[in-house]
Design a protein that fits this description.
Length: about 725
C-alpha cells in the first residue's frame, strides 16, 4: 500500500528484501476505486510479519561477472564471485499481543566497465545494504497497529552519471555517490461489530542524492568538456556533488471503511474512504560543479589521454548554467474520495460498482499553483457465473484511471532550481587544430578559453531564463486512460485452469508545449526578447493499447506442474511520450506548428514500446528421492518476445546551404532551425526477437520432525542456458 515509484522517471525503487516478501498481486484491468494515481497496471507487494512462532531464514546467493558470455562489444568481465546475504527473523515479543519481524539484504558488487570511446577499463562498485523492521501490536480483540521501516544504504563507486553526454571518456568524469532511502509506515486495522471494518495508513518515503556530481567548483577543474562529434565528455563530472542534495520524497495518508450489508436483493461489501498523497522534490539542478560546459569541436586521444580540439567560430561554444533562484521544493498533492460496492446478487451474478474523485493541488519549486483540477473516475464491472459453481466465469469492466500530475513536467514553468542558459561561440585562437603541433592538455586549453572569455566578454548567441520563456497558465490536468475489458476463465477439473482476457485502453490529456502565433512574445531582465511557450494538455496526441492475454496452469499427476502465458498486443499512436532518461515528456505537436507536418514530424504507427508477442512457458518437475525429508525439483522457463519497432528519423535543417529558409517566418523571434523528420514509417523496422531458456535446480532437506524444524535449501540457476544473443 506504500507507493515506491521514483518521483521523476516513475520506475519502482528497490525498497524491498526478496525473502521478506509474503505475496505479490498484480492488477491489470478492472482495478477497484480505492486505487488511484496510475494509468496502467498495479503491483502490490506485502511483506511478512511476526507471529507467535519464531521463524527465520538465511540465504547467500553468489554471482560472478565472468560467468556470462561477452557481448559483441567485447567488454572485459570481472572474475570476482560476489555474495549477496539475505536474512529474516520474526516472532513474539509478548505472545498473543506484540510481535516483531526483521530482515536484511547485504551485497557489495564490482562490475568491469570501460569508458566511452577511449575504452579505458575500470571497476564500478555498488555497495548496498537494505534493512526492514516491523512491530505489530494488538490493541484488543479486534484492533491492531503495525509500524514498519525499510532503509537502504547505497553507495556507487566510480559511477558514470553522464546525462547530457553519451558517456564518460576518462576516469576523472566518474563519481562516487550515495543514494540513501528510508520508508516509514504505520497501519491500523479495527473491526467494530460483525459488519464494520476500519483501516488507516500513513507512510513517508525519502530518497537523497549525495555527491552525485563534481566536487570542485573551480572554473578550470570543475568544467566538463564535451565532444560534439562523438557526444562523449571528459575532464570533470556532470552535475554538482557539493551543492544542495537532491531529494525525492512522498507522503500519503489513507483512511478506509468496509461495511457488509445483507439485503433481499443480495449481499453488499461497501468500501469507502479518503486518500491524500503528496509528491515532493527539492533540487537545485546544477549542470556541473562550476556551472559551465565547454563543447569542443571534437577531441583526440593519445595514450588514453583525451585532448580537446577547439576551432574558433561556430564549431566550439561555451555554456554557462547559473541558477538565478534556488528551489523551494515542490508539493504536488492529490486528495481523493472513493466509493466501491461489490454487490453479490446471487451465485450467478456480481456487480462491482465504484467511483473515485481526484482533486489536484500542485505547487512548483517557486511556490506557484500550477495544478488545480479535479476529475471523476467510474469503475464499473460485472461477473457472470452461468452454472453458479465457479467452473466458468465471464467478467466485463469499464474503468477510468487518472495519473498523478508529473512532477518534472509541472515544474517546467518555474525558474527555481532550474539553470539559466547563456551560450557563447568561442572566437579565440585555435587549440590542437594543427596536428603537427604538440597537443595542449585540457587544463591549459580551458585556461585559454576562459582567458579569451574574460578579456572579450562576448555577447551570447542564446539566452534562456527559466520561468520566463516557458510558462504554465491556468491549471494542468492529470492524464487519464479509459479502459474496457472482457474476459472468461474456466477450471479444468481439479488439475488446472485457463483464462483469456481482452483489454482496450485509450489515453487522453497528454502534456504538450505550445509555441505559436497566439502565445506572443516576452522579455526578461537582461533585455532578451523571445517567443513565449506554454505547457498545457492536449488530445492531439493519440495513444491506444489493445491486447489479448491468455494464461493457464495444469498439474500432471503429483509431480509435474505446467504453465503458460501469452499476450498478443498492439500499442499505436503518434508520440512515444517518455524516455528512460527523463520519464514523461511534453509533446511538440504545437511547437512552432508552421515548421512541421504531422505526416513526417509525428506520424501515427506502432510506438517504440509496442511488443506484439510476449510468451512464457514454464514447468516444474519433482524428482522422487525415497525420503520424506528430501525434496528435489527441476524448473524450466522459456521466454519468447518479439522485437520492438523503430523508424528512420533525424533532425533536418529548415534552411538550405546558403541559409535561405524553407518556411516563411510568420513573425517569430527565434524560429526553429531544425525539425524531426521520419524518412520511413514510424514502425518500418523491428529489433530481433528474443528467446531465452532459464534452468533452476532446487534441493530442500528438512532436519527433524515437527513444525519448527530447521530446513536447509539450495538452488542452482542458469539464465539463458543456450547462450542466445539478440
Amino acid at each position: 500500500g506504500v507507493q515506491t515509484q521514483d518521483n521523476v522517471r516513475g520506475d519502482s525503487l528497490n525498497l524491498y528484501i526478496e525473502d521478506a516478501i509474503e505475496e505479490t498481486t498484480v492488477a491489470t484491468s478492472g482495478v477497484p476505486a480505492q486505487y488511484g494515481r496510475f494509468n496502467g497496471g498495479l503491483v502490490n507487494a506485502v511483506t511478512k510479519s511476526g507471529s507467535n512462532a519464531f521463524s527465520g531464514s538465511f540465504r547467500t546467493s553468489f554471482t560472478n561477472d565472468a560467468w556470462r558470455t561477452k557481448t559483441p562489444f567485447g567488454e572485459p568481465p570481472l572474475n570476482a564471485t560476489v555474495p549477496a546475504y539475505e536474512f529474516t527473523l520474526g516472532g513474539p515479543i509478548v505472545r498473543d499481543k506484540t510481535w516483531f519481524f526483521g530482515a536484511g539484504r547485504l551485497e557489495n558488487r564490482d562490475t568491469a566497465e570501460q569508458t566511452f570511446i577511449t575504452k579505458i577499463p575500470y571497476t564500478s562498485g555498488n555497495d548496498e545494504s537494505r534493512y526492514e523492521a516491523k512491530v505489530t501490536q494488538s490493541l484488543g480483540m479486534a484492533q491492531r497497529l503495525q509500524v514498519g521501516y525499510i532503509g537502504v544504504s547505497h553507495k556507487d563507486t566510480d559511477a558514470d552519471t553522464a546525462a547530457i553526454a553519451s558517456g564518460a571518456m576518462d576516469l576523472a568524469s566518474l563519481v562516487t555517490r550515495e543514494l540513501p532511502q528510508q520508508q516509514i509506515s504505520a497501519h491500523y486495522t479495527g473491526t467494530f461489530g460483525s459488519k464494520f471494518f476500519v483501516e488507516s495508513q500513513y507512510s513517508t518515503r525519502r530518497l537523497t542524492f549525495k555527491h552525485a556530481g563534481g566536487l570542485n567548483t573551480d572554473r578550470i577543474l570543475g568544467t566538463p568538456l564535451l565532444d560534439q562529434e562523438t557526444g562523449g565528455s571528459w575532464w570533470a563530472p556532470e552535475f554538482c556533488g557539493v551543492c544542495q542534495d537532491e531529494q525525492r520524497n512522498n507522503d500519503e495518508f489513507l483512511a478506509k471503511g468496509n461495511y457488509f450489508l445483507s439485503t433481499p436483493a443480495g449481499a453488499h461489501n461497501i468500501t469507502f474512504g479518503y486518500d491524500t498523497f503528496n509528491d515532493r522534490t527539492i533540487d537545485d539542478n546544477h549542470q556541473s560543479a562550476s556551472d559551465w560546459h565547454v563543447w569542443a569541436t571534437t577531441s583526440t586521444v593519445e595514450d588514453g589521454v583525451v585532448y580537446p580540439v577547439i576551432a574558433p567560430g561556430f564549431s566550439t561554444y561555451l555554456i554557462h548554467w547559473p541558477l538565478l533562484q534556488s528551489s523551494q521544493g515542490t508539493n504536488f498533492r492529490t486528495h481523493a474520495l472513493f466509493l466501491q460496492d461489490d454487490w453479490r446478487v446471487d451465485n450467478h451474478l456480481t456487480f462491482n460498482l465504484g467511483v473515485r474523485y481526484d482533486k489536484n493541488h500542485g505547487e512548483d519549486a517557486s511556490g506557484h499553483v500550477v495544478a488545480n483540477d479535479a476529475i471523476v473516475s467510474p469503475r464499473l464491472g460485472v461477473v457472470w457465473d452461468p452454472t453458479g459453481g465457479g467452473t466458468t466465469t465471464v467478467n466485463a469492466s469499464y474503468s477510468r484511471y487518472v495519473a498523478a500530475i508529473s512532477n518534472p513536467i509541472a515544474s517546467q514553468g518555474s525558474g527555481a532550481g532550474v539553470p539559466s542558459i547563456f551560450a557563447y561561440f568561442y572566437d579565440g585562437d585555435p587549440i590542437n587544430v594543427d596536428a603537427s603541433q604538440p597537443l595542449v592538455p585540457t587544463d591549459q586549453a580551458l585556461a585559454q578559453v576562459f582567458a579569451w572569455y574574460d578579456a572579450t566578454q562576448p555577447d551570447p548567441f542564446q539566452v534562456t531564463i527559466p520561468g520566463v520563456q516557458t510558462q504554465i497558465r491556468g491549471s494542468l490536468k492529470s492524464p487519464h486512460v479509459d479502459e474496457a475489458a472482457v474476459g472468461v476463465s474456466r477450471t479444468l477439473g481439479t488439475h488446472g485452469a485457463v483464462r483469456v482476457d481482452v483489454v482496450d485502453r485509450q489515453f487522453g490529456d497528454f502534456y504538450a508545449v505550445r509555441t505559436d502565433a497566439t502565445t506572443g512574445q516576452g522579455s526578461d531582465d537582461f533585455g532578451n526578447v523571445f517567443d513565449l511557450s506554454y505547457i498545457e494538455n492536449t488530445n492531439l496526441v493519440t495513444r491506444r493499447y489493445t491486447a489479448l492475454t491468455a494464461q493457464g496452469t495444469y498439474r500432471v499427476g503429483t509431480r509435474v506442474n505446467l504453465g503458460a502465458s501469452y499476450t498478443l498486443s498492439r500499442l499505436r499512436g503518434n508520440d512515444d511520450g517518455e524516455d528512460t532518461n527523463s520519464g514523461p515528456l511534453t509533446a511538440t505537436f504545437l511547437y512552432y506548428p508552421e515548421y512541421s507536418e504531422p505526416s513526417w514530424d509525428h506520424p501515427e504507427g506502432d510506438l517504440s514500446a509496442d511488443q506484439r508477442h510476449n510468451a512464457r512457458l514454464w514447468g516444474t518437475i519433482a524428482i522422487p528421492t525415497g525420503s520424506t525429508a528430501d525434496q528435489v525439483s527441476i524448473s524450466l522457463v522459456e521466454q519468447m518476445q518479439s522485437g520492438t519497432p523503430y523508424g528512420a528519423v533525424a533532425e533536418i535543417a529548415l534552411s538550405d546551404a546558403d541559409g535561405n529558409p524553407f518556411v516563411q517566418n510568420p513573425g517569430y523571434i527565434t524560429p526553429p532551425q531544425t525539425t524531426p523528420y521520419y524518412f520511413t514509417a514510424r514502425d518500418a523496422f523491428h529489433t530481433a526477437a528474443m528467446y531465452r531458456t532459464d534452468l533452476s535446480l532446487n534441493y530442500t532437506r528438512r532436519m527433524g520432525p515437527g513444525a519448527h524444524a530447521l530446513e536447509l535449501f539450495g538452488r542452482f540457476q542458469v539464465f539463458n542456458i543456450f547462450n542466445q544473443f539478440q
